[in-house]
Specification:
The protein is mainly beta. Among the domains are: 1-75, no CATH class; 278-350, Rhodanese-like domain (Oxidized Rhodanese, domain 1, 3-Layer(aba) Sandwich). The protein contains four helices and 28 strands. The chain has a four-stranded antiparallel beta sheet, with helices on one face. It has a four-stranded antiparallel beta sheet with strand order 5-6-7-8, with no helix packed on it. The chain has a four-stranded antiparallel beta sheet with strand order 9-10-11-12, with no helix packed on it. The chain is globular and about 65 Å long. It starts with 16 loop residues before the first helix and ends with a helix.
Amino acid sequence: MRAFAGVAVALGASFVASTAWGHGARPSVFDIVERDGGVVGMATTFGVIHDGGDGLTWSCTAAVPATPTGYLFAGDDVIATTTDGLYVSDDSGCTWSEHPSDIAAPVVTEVRRDGADGGSTWLVTADLDAPNGVYRSDDDGRTWDAFGPTLDDTALYGLAVAEGRVVVTALNAEVGWSVLDWTADAAEPVADVPEGLLDVEVWIAGDRVWLADIRMRDSTFYGHDADTDAFVAWGDPVEGVITDVVEADGDVLVATDTSDVYRATPAGLERLEGENVPVILDVRSPEEFAEGHIPGAINVPYDQVAANLDSLESFRTAEIVVYCRTGRRAGVAENVMREAGFSRCEPLEIKSQVNLFYAVQR
């Protein structure tokens, strides 16, 4: 989610809480680095978090010279996308210098990775005094190439990338909001944007383009319907603001800032509660669990799962979603449970796990 829009995916209070809350708000996750099955670095609104061997901690709190809209790890460097161009740091975000890029418009509004496309990284710009466009990097943000056309008098804000497909939201003073399929040759409308939306964000999940107003509370979630070639309301408006949309275990899940999670079904949005909720297994420590957890989650520390399989026996045929703080412990627990015959046990993919879990925590 773009930070300047005021509705970003929140990092939960259970994660380096005292430092994060000391900034006066929850930080937002932009990029994650994994190594040997665990997270070793995380870039957030307030700086860079890294694992020096004793768990994830803030490595530096120095401010980027301009308002950050995203962060990327590029080897040992950290790159910040901001409202005044790109900046680079070689000391985990403590000091910054201008990035030697030649992006025409300095106001970078959103940055995304596409893991399915060889790890390419994408960004969009929204400068009122320069043509705006999409840029692609194949080396973790060290160098950038313009991708496709540029647009005058049109600011690009939202960005979704999946398996090589690039979709952006654009705002023009005369036309209003549009959602565009962006290719190397053209920017073509996906479909007309519903009227009355203030700040449009876009996602790609479940082979469908989704959009919502991320400034308006009790907003409607829209999905692109291929048969009518239109964005249609996906059920009734949800409570709160939609903060994230992820695809996990074949389902499209929608999180809001009211701690609710919905599953997108052909009939609309299905709130996950009661019998519809998968068994949620929190394999963090009891102390972490007490600081904050997904409502309804069962807490069994990952190193105690094997000793507690009997207590989990009633869930043997159920769908089980395992989560922890970074994904490493969830992977260990999943292996133990699968070897014991819990065939529907899955850890959430790491970026989805962080985005969704921390978005729905109070």
